[in-house]
Design a protein that fits this description.
alpha/beta, 2 domains, 11-stranded mixed sheet, two-stranded antiparallel ribbon, 13 helices, 33% helix
Length: 408
Amino acid sequence: MKRAVISGMGVVTALGDGLDGLLEGLHAGQSAVQRMPGWEDYKGLRSLVGAPLQLKNEKAIPRRNRRSMGRMSIYAVQAAEQALADAAFDREQLSGGRVGCVIGSTMGGAQALTEAFEIMIPERDLSLLNSMKFFQCLSHTAAMNVSQYLGITGYVAATCAACVSSLQAIGLGLDLVRSGRQDAVLCGGSEELHPTVTATFDILFATSSGFNDNPRETPRPFDSRRDGLVCGEGCGLVLIEEYEHAMARGIRPWAEILGYDTNAGGTHVSQSNRDGLRICMANALRDADLKPENVDLISAHATGTLQGDAEEAGGIADLFGEDTPVSGLKGHLGHTLGASGAIELAATLGMMRDGVICATRNLHTPGKDCAGIRHVTDPLENHFQTVIKNGSAFGGINAALICRLMNH
C-alpha cells in the first residue's frame, strides 16, 4: 500500500473567498446563516433560514463549458482551480490517465431539477427541455463537468450518499492512490442551496425553525437549545497524491491521510446510531494503526439535530471519553450536505496549521444528552497534529477520515 497525502485544497463557501477567507471568517466567529427571502411563499415550509453564497466570477469559465453547469458545478470548477494551484500541480499531467476525479453530492443540481419539472409538467412537453438542462440535473454533474473542463482522463466517479458524499469521495480517492491505480485524485463534494433541499429535511422535522427571526443563532451543534439543521451550499475539494509523487515535485503537502472507514448503523433509515458511529471511528483508527489517545482533535459532523448530535456525542464518548477536543463548524456555515466533509476537513487542517481551533459557534450550554465529551466552547490554542473527521447520512451511513498534519 502506497502512502497518500493531501497536496492541495480548494473551497468555495459562504464565509469568504477561498480557504484564507473561510479561515478568516471562522477565526472571527462569523455566521453565514440568514433568513432566505421568498421562502415564506412555500406553503408548509417551516425553516426559512439558510447559508447561501454569492456566485462570483463564473464568466471566467468559457461559455462552451459553462452551458452544462449549474451552480454546484461552477462551485466545483472554482474549488478545483484553487486545489490545483495550491498543490502547484502541472496541468499537463491531468490528461495522462494517471489523475482521477471523484466528486459527490446529495443529488444533481437542485435548481436545474426544479426548473426542468416546472418547464415540462404543465404541458407535458419534453421538447421544451434542452440538453444542457439535463446535464445540470445529472447526479454526477459536478464530477462530469470538472473532469471535462480540466481534461482529466483517469478514473472519474461520483459518490452519492447524502451528507457523507464528500468523505466517501475522499475515501475512494485514497483507495485509488494507495493501490497505485492513480498518482493523484481530485476529490470532495459540491452542493447548492434551494428550498426543495431544505424541504426534504423539513418534512422529517430535522430543520431549525425556531430561529427564523434570529438566523445567526442557529444551528446550535450539541447545544441544549438546538432545534435542527440549517442547509448551506458550497464546494470543498482536495488533491490526494501519492507521497513519492508529491515529494518528487518538491512540494510540501498539507497532511498525510492515515486511515478511513465507512459503514452503516443498520437500524434506521433517517437517524444516526451511536454504535455505528463508534465502530466507524474505531475501524478508521485500526486502518491508521492508531489508538484513540493518538488523536488530537475530532471534527464532528454535529448538524444541530436533536437525535443526530446526541448519537454522535455518545459514539465519541464511548471511544474517546472526555480527553479529546470536539469541534463543529456548522454553526458558522450551515450544513453544506454532500460538500460538508471536505469543506470542514479543509477548514480544520487550516486551523490546525494556524494553531487555533475556533469555538463551536452557538454552543453555549451543551445538552445533557451530549455530555461526556470535551466540547470546544472557546478558541483552543495548541499544537494539533492528528484529526479525525466524522460524517453521517441518511440510511445510517457513516464515514470517518484520519489525517496527520505535515510541516506545511
